[in-house]
Design a protein that fits this description.
7 strands, globular, seven-stranded mixed β-sheet, about 30% helix, 5 helices, alpha+beta
């Protein structure tokens, strides 16, 4: 398998992020709404000025294949959140997402964070399986409103980084 690596999102990545996040299967799986290129350009500008958040492009070799974002980096309780992980459909199910998440987990561990949490839809079993491979466990069940206005049952999944 080609090397999986992360690179911090730059303004030049807006078109790629727009493409990924407007892929039909990704919109459906994440209960998201379509977005425009200008939405992504604005979002990247905001991220670059927000110490609480970091965003990465996931690469398979030299090919960009997805996006991973974390936030909660300024939290007083040393808990970071995996806000989103999305891979282009043709790269799903190959272990790429788990490899990228493990890299972020190691970054957070080295920085001294005690915990990483995330939210995922209860019917997104594929994502849950990936998160479980990375050591996450379900810690809460809740109902939440998604970007598309749909009320969905979700899980909070958590990984303790330091015993």
């Amino acid at each position: 398998m080609a090397t999986i690596h992360l690179r911090t999102v730059t303004e030049n990545d807006a078109r790629f992020l727009c493409s990924v996040m407007n892929t039909g299967s990704i919109l459906e799986a994440l209960n998201e709404v379509p977005t425009t290129l200008s939405d992504w350009q604005s979002a990247i500008r905001e991220w670059n000025n927000d110490d609480d958040e970091e965003d990465y492009i996931i690469f398979h070799g030299e090919t960009p294949v997805g996006w991973l974002g974390i936030n909660g980096l300024s939290s007083a309780n040393s808990t970071a959140f995996l806000k989103l992980a999305a891979l282009l459909p043709q790269y799903q199910g190959l272990g790429i997402g788990a490899a990228a998440i493990r890299q972020v987990i190691e970054i957070l561990r080295q920085r001294g964070y005690s915990c990483v949490s995330l939210y995922t839809d209860q019917d997104n079993r594929r994502a849950q399986a990936c998160y479980r491979k990375c050591g996450f466990r379900i810690t809460e069940s809740l109902m939440d409103e998604s970007s598309n206005g749909k009320i969905v049952p979700r899980f909070r999944m958590t990984l303790q980084l330091h015993p």
